[in-house]
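Structure ticket #2291
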Amino acid sequence: MRDLPPAHPFDDDKLKEECGVYGVIGVNDAANFVALGLHALQHRGQEAGGIISYAPQTGFNSAHRFGYVRDNFTKAGLMETLPGAIAIGHVRYSTAGSKGATSIRDVQPFFGEFSMGGAAIAHNGNITNARALRRELIERGSIFQSSSDSECIIHLMALSLQRNIPERMKDALRRVEGAYSIVAMTRTKLMGVRDPLGVRPLVLGRVGEGWVLSSETCALDIIGAEFIREIEPGEMVVISAENGVQSYHPFEAVPPRFCIFEHVYFSRPDSILGGRSVYETRRQIGVELAREAPVEADLVCPVPDSGTPAAIGYSQESGIPYAMGIIRNQYMGRTFIEPTEQIRNMGVRLKLNVNRALIRGKRVILVDDSVVRGTTSLKIKEMIMDAGAKEVHFRIASPPTAWPCFYGVDTPEREKLLASRMSEEEMRVHIGVDSLRFISLDGLYRAVGEAGGRNADQPQYCDACFSGAYPVRPSDMIERGFEIDTAAE
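Resolution: structure written out below.
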């Protein structure tokens, strides 16, 4: 995948979940339901989206577009080309580190024609041995149409000797390493798979007589679907009108390692993860942060919007009043035109504005979800100081992000991560605030429901971006020269 230029410095200093996936079977005009679901998953990918449907009269039909779901998949003319009672869809960001314009060929879902019929697949996550697989497949005669590692799954399925597409998918995924959630479809079946560790999310819902697979529960709510359960780590479900939901476990069982950053930032606060409200977890992170890093101040202010639940929790626990000291311009989209150098230099001010009357003369605690490069933190601090704040204290609702993610998250190279080269105190001096504290890794684990904190011998979550302990060996990155701390691993 290739990267689009960052739309705005504020967006560029946040980690981005790379993709969202969605699938529906057993309803009329399934593609319309998928479009609504993708709209609810837009926070997981804003660069491009695609939908593939199947109808007996027309066969498989597809549409892939750049931009927002609302700008593409709400047009009657387009949606009429996607008939049928089964459809899957995908929204995406592109992967960090590449340059130039994104190719439409990289936009999922992908489609393949097999001897027993066609199949489409959409994938959230990252295949960590994709380079080796691609090399092997090309040597065996496969012709790739995209730069996406997801296409490897289609080619592995084509080479399988199994008699049906679900069995071919099982066969293919046994060769794949990494973190993934997959939705796929044939003419009559909707399939969903999570990797053995369950790093990336996938849930099952019921809408009328039909079924839904989604990256998050908030995308079930938008179509009025009932949340049934999460797809288990290492589970594959095959859904059809004839047999309903059939469950398989094609992989050896291992202790799960769900991505803990889904709780911190990626998922929408109105979603449910592991039976827990994401909003409540984030509020509890703020509570833990107030216990670990108290400070005397006049106001607790979130960095909108992702810092809001944690700021509420911090305020409730500390007794310091909560206030909207920073206001976000909700109408500042990714397509905003920045015509002059002067406007470009305004940076974060185009998206955030300080409530000066509230801030002036106050000791302010700013609560944000994370610090990545630190560029946004610097600009926000300058805005708060320019507004006349007496003191500025940063409280961060995650541990220091010191390691890149190789499991489907858009992260900078390690040397660009502020926490990879600075201690907490050095970061405080660099940003220029009166105090800076991150929640501890144990505190984060307590906030997500692990009362005893993190199990260092067998961590309950994937927290590699904080600890460097990668649960799946990133083979491709090691091949390219990335050094892994084997003690952490």
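Closing remark: The longest strand covers residues 117-127.
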